[in-house]
Amino acid sequence: MTLAVRSPQLLLPGHAVDRARWPVVACDQFTSQADYWAETDRLVGDAASTLRLILPEVYLGAGDEARIADIHRAMADVLNRDLLAPHAGPILVRRTSRGAHGEHARHGVVVEVDLERYDFARDSQSAVRATEGTIVDRIPPRLRVRAGAALELPHVLLLFDDPHDTVLGPLRARTASLATAYDQALMQGGGHLQGWALDAAGEAHLWQSLAALSFGGAGEAPLQFAVGDGNHSLATARTWWLQVKATLPEAQWADHPARWALVEIENIHDPGLEFEPIHRVLFEVRRDPLADLTAEFGARVRVTAMTVDGLAAAVASYDRGQAAGLVTGAGAWLVEFTQPTAKLTVATMQTWLDAWLKAGGAGGIDYVHGADVTLDLGSKPGHAGILLPAIDKSGLFTSVRTDGPLPRKTFSMGEAWEKRYYFEARKIVP
Fold this sequence. Notes:
The chain is α+β, with helices and mostly antiparallel strands. It folds into 2 domains: 5-274 and 415-427, no CATH class; 275-413, 2-Layer Sandwich (Conserved hypothetical protein from pyrococcus furiosus pfu- 392566-001, domain 2), CATH 3.30.1760. It contains 11 helices and 21 strands. The chain has helices at residues 34-44, 64-80, 139-147, 168-172, 200-211, 231-245, 289-297, 308-317, 345-358, 371-378, 396-403; strands spanning 5-6, 9-13, 84-88, 91-99, 102-114, 118-119, 128-130, 151-152, 157-160, 179-186, 191-197, 225-229, 260-267, 275-285, 301-306, 322-328, 331-337, 362-369, 384-387, 411-413, 426-427. Strands 1, 4, 5, 6, 7, 9, 10, 11, 12 and 13 form a 10-stranded mixed sheet that branches. Helix 3 packs across helix 6. The longest helix has 17 residues, at 64-80. The protein is globular. The model has no long low-confidence stretch (mean pLDDT 93).
């Protein structure tokens, strides 16, 4: 079977780059916390940094076109000044960070994925599939960045299903014999990043062991990789590739750089890979969400008043079915769905939220990592917060193969500060 990934052609920060200020966290994090990005900007200062090569989504809608033009100029600048050094081949990555479950490390490999083998449609049977529903409204601003970009910087994480650790286990055991590609502390509490260039033996093992994995049962379309993080960035890359492809003769399709996207692949069974819930924060709340929720579900829901401090633990430890937390300036409640409308709590709640928002219940919604942030924002005047439980990662591949993508923004692989930091780059123009 042909794999959907291949060996990458990378660009890494060269000796003239201050590597302490080069990597920043994924653009879709801390979207309601402008102070995080202001502090990142202060730390970066006038140094060459990936901060200048991305559009943090906290700024979306505030001078997008000027920011995008600045991004494109910054990309041209780092290339014209030869600040990036070429590196051919996969890199084994170890990321050490501290999350809700203490300090832990997770491992992956940086490769390129074939966008012809990925489709984010709900009924997709492609080798690479989305794990969650794609919010198409999130693609256009990212597409405007990519349309004029010379470079891409990855925060996409693809998962593969390797319960016996046959792919990365032998590679981790060989790090002492591999050349170090980078070894760098990450700003803003991001932990530590290490990378080793795979040698010929390591790369041969990578491709052979990936090809030997089971990609599904008899009669199922093979699922090689599931998108764990960065689904909208990958969806943007595919959308852009299809636009570029339409302008090219077929003979140029196979090797055009826009056909491929830079990703990190990780084993879903890595013990350092924790699935965290993604919560909801509602803004410009115009109606009482508690009253409307209880009116909608009636006897099918049970509501218990709680302290704000105890709500997160109550949601996380709930084991009697489906339950979510609701917090407003007026208080906090555990909401138990005695007759849920979907298989997952997030689907039951999101279905109601979609209709409530459409009816004018609130002016906007954000998807937030971290219970503390949700409780803080949700308690502010005019806001509301909804806490959701985590899902069990062990059944993810089976669920995607049989039922398609989960509801949008169902889970997060770690807390916001544990998300992938931009470090490697790749040219996406000939």
